[in-house]
Amino acid sequence: MYPNCETSSPFWCLGNLKTQVAETILRNYVNNRSIAQNIKSTVPTSKMAIEHGNPKSMCLFGKPDYKNYILHKYCWALYDKNNL
Q: What is the pTM of this model?
């Protein structure tokens, strides 16, 4: 299961209803236990932007969209590095 406001990327996974009870998955969501939720609440956006942003980019983002974009780049890099 994944939060309904995000992609089904592996770092957003909250659990599997075939192998876990719903309460566990809900607890994972409420307590930010998916990798991306945890990163979003513990890693400063500035750190993610320094590591994965492009200061020469001409792309135009709203602040929430840019934060999400940087979060996904950060998570994918972490996922690829550690094969989470």
A: 0.79
